């Protein structure tokens, strides 16, 4: 955790979720409430097909809804893409950019990720910019170099603590059930904090740094308790309301 920073527990549903899954969003919306929601923010990023209905389900809940990607342009001939403005028009408030699965599946570069984050800012969205090293990069001792390069090239110069969240997701920990040790997470997050503070000053010191990769109810308390970890980006365990809420509620003990 970082003093005076409101943590964010975010779910990334990836390419999962039919209309029937809206029940899970309803349950999460009901479970996210004061006093915890005053201290810890909760967010679900369903597939774009469910975005508009999902936000309609959350009008009476502090649960935020976001998207998983946006195009770098505001509109135009880009078949299959959605713009940041369209997300905002559906009452989404966040967008994930640069997830490793998009970097791999769609050959997204740091340069493109930065342009997408800039498009998110223009639309008034908060961008969750994802970074993280591969297993090979880690094995060969390059993890911090990769983090440094991705932070410097993917995060726009105009980033602020309000407009930007960084998600550190070591690729080898995504969907594998394997997580780094707390000491490794602490080291990576301390490094990111120093890099961001050097570049953005106070904004960088307050920017939320999420950890992502095999977060589940059983390890949430330990991982969320690490210094400079200001929340989680959760894949698989965010699909079930009970698991997502159990992770969210790990903060009850951490903030007590
Ligand atoms: O990629 C992730 C979130 O963006 C993490 O996925 P898992 O929680 O399923 O490992």
From TrEMBL:
For this chain, one GO molecular function annotation is: triose-phosphate isomerase activity
Q: Which PROSITE patterns match?
A: TIM_1, TIM_2
This protein's pathway: Carbohydrate degradation; glycolysis; D-glyceraldehyde 3-phosphate from glycerone phosphate: step 1/1; Carbohydrate biosynthesis; gluconeogenesis; Carbohydrate metabolism; erythritol degradation
List of residues binding substrate: 12-14, 175, 214, 235-236
Q: What reaction does this enzyme carry out catalytically? A: D-glyceraldehyde 3-phosphate = dihydroxyacetone phosphate; L-erythrulose 1-phosphate = D-erythrulose 4-phosphate
Key word Transmembrane present in the record?
no
Q: Listed GO cellular component terms? A: cytosol
Q: Where in the cell is it found?
A: Cytoplasm
- Please give the InterPro entries that the UniProt record associates with this protein: Aldolase_TIM, TIM_sf, TrioseP_Isoase_bac/euk, Triosephosphate_isomerase, Triosephosphate_isomerase_AS
- What's the main place this protein lives? cytoplasm
What does the record give as EC number?
5.3.1.1
Keyword list (alphabetical) reads: Cytoplasm, Gluconeogenesis, Glycolysis, Isomerase
The record's annotation in HAMAP family points to: TIM_B (MF_00147_B)
Q: How does it assemble?
A: Homodimer.
What the protein does comes down to:
Involved in the gluconeogenesis. Catalyzes stereospecifically the conversion of dihydroxyacetone phosphate (DHAP) to D-glyceraldehyde-3-phosphate (G3P).
Q: Which family does it belong to?
A: Belongs to the triosephosphate isomerase family.
What is the name attached to this protein's record? Triosephosphate isomerase
UniProt organism field: Rhizobium sophorae
Source taxonomy:
Bacteria, Pseudomonadati, Pseudomonadota, Alphaproteobacteria, Hyphomicrobiales
